[in-house]
Amino acid sequence: MLLKKFSNHLLECGTDEAGRGCLAGPVTAAAVILPKDFNNAVLNDSKQLSEKKRDLLKPIIEIDALSYGVAHVFQEDIDKINILNASILAMHKSIIKLKPQPEFIIVDGNKFKPYKDIKFETIIKGDSKYLSIAAASVLAKTYRDIYMNKIHEEFPMYNWKQNKGYPTKEHREAIKKYGITKYHRKSFRLLPEQLILDL
């Protein structure tokens, strides 16, 4: 069973991101404040759920949440500020959208930067421990998948519909064959044999 709360604040939000390890597309974050009586036996860390279950959970979370926010940070910004900063920025942008604003923030992982003056706690594997972080992980993943399916239409040869921009063998083969697109993260090692020159 996932835990409902970390703090004793009524308005506690969980936040998580998706797409950090991808070679293309945005990093997407979500923040969710759940009501104290929220229960869902299926909800878990999005990585442990099938796509079908995530798609079923998305509207349930959106309807039942007291508030939720989702934000993308795109590849141009990832290349400028690096993926860790982009992930935290996406989380901040998703929290900004919450009405009411949270009194406490729980974050999946071990890295975060203060948001306004709201207290926070980072929790390793938080998406498999707390309902609100699990809910945020599902929204971040489903919203990012919708975006990747959309840009797949523009560049079907990379099969983003299937790999969502992750570094699969097929995705890397397509980069070798067709080069990169405007959606690729140029600061990432897109191919294993890519050489980084310190000039």
TrEMBL record:
InterPro entries: RNase_HII (IPR022898), RNase_HII/HIII (IPR001352), RNase_HII/HIII_dom (IPR024567), RNaseH-like_sf (IPR012337), RNaseH_sf (IPR036397). It is an enzyme of class 3 (hydrolase). It is found in: Cytoplasm. Its EC number is 3.1.26.4. Its main location: cytoplasm. Residues 10-199 form the RNase H type-2 domain. PANTHER family: RIBONUCLEASE H2 SUBUNIT A, RIBONUCLEASE HII. This is Ribonuclease HII. It comes from Algibacter aquimarinus. The gene is rnhB.
